[in-house]
Write a structure and sequence with these properties.
Strand order of the largest sheet: 2-1-5-4-3
Distance between the termini: 6 Å
Number of strands: 5
CATH superfamily: Dynein light chain 2a, cytoplasmic
Number of helices: 3
């Protein structure tokens, strides 16, 4: 996969949502970060956030009557962490750090689907 268009796509996505502090595409199985924007370590947040997704997957039978999980949102005192599936096969999540109340989440989900289409075309 060509990293330059991926970096541009993530940068453009973050720029369209001023409340977003950063995001990363992370392999759901391994925790490997495919790319992040800004290109800062964030002290392992990207990799660690994926464990919430794995836990949800392991416990999904308990929530089966609610339907499949579409996102996981963690509200912390300073920021919100949101995990959205972006690709399947391989399973890749878009992990986002955002300010409370400052993001159009419906738009974010729409743009995440568009990002997934671009990624799938590049695989």
């Amino acid at each position: 996969m060509n990293q330059a268009p991926l970096a541009t796509s993530l940068g453009d996505l973050v720029a369209r949502y001023p409340g977003v502090r950063g995001c990363a595409l992370v392999d759901a199985a391994s925790g490997l970060v495919w790319h992040r924007h800004p290109d800062a370590d964030m002290h392992g947040i990207w990799e660690a956030a994926v464990d919430h997704w794995r836990l949800q997957q392991r416990l999904s039978e308990h929530f089966s009557e609610l339907g499949p999980a579409k996102a996981i949102v963690l509200h912390h005192a300073e920021l919100k962490v949101t995990l959205l599936p972006c690709l399947s096969d391989p399973d890749v999540l878009l992990v986002c750090l955002a300010e409370h109340g400052n993001v159009d989440w419906a738009g974010w989900q729409r743009d995440t689907r568009q990002l997934a289409e671009r990624l799938r075309a590049d695989l």
